[in-house]
Amino acid sequence: MKYPPFCDIIVVNFNSLSEQEIKKTSQWMYEKLKASLNEEQFKIFRPMPAPIDKIQNRLRYRIIIKGNMTEEANQTLNQYLKEIYSKNLKTTRITIDVNPNSMM
Question: Tens digit of pLDDT for each residue in 1-23?
């Protein structure tokens, strides 16, 4: 089933005021991760709204990744974060949580 402690769960959280921007950014990140992370080592789930999809007028999406967090995976995630932040998105914030205590 691949759950901790046998593997890691990595949650990439997107938070935005713009529905169009959050969908576009999360889909871009999903496609990049799918292309660069080994499918045998990582199971990557499509971007979806979080269980509580809106807080204080900010939409919330997330990508869930199951696999063992390696140095290579960490570098890949950091690289894509830098690319997204270099685009200067006005309303979108992104966080990455490894083995979160809560999935809400």
Answer: 667 778 899 999 999 999 999 99
Q: Does 40 fall in a domain?
A: yes
CA nearest to 10, candidates 69, 52, 85? 69
**Other beta carbons within 10 Å of 45:** 12
Domain membership flag for residue 2: no
Show the beta-strand stretches assigned E in 20-81.
42-44, 48-55, 58-67
Cα separation, 23 vs 29, whole angstroms: 10
Question: Model-level pTM?
Answer: 0.88
The number of beta carbons lying within 10 Å of the beta carbon of residue 74 is 13
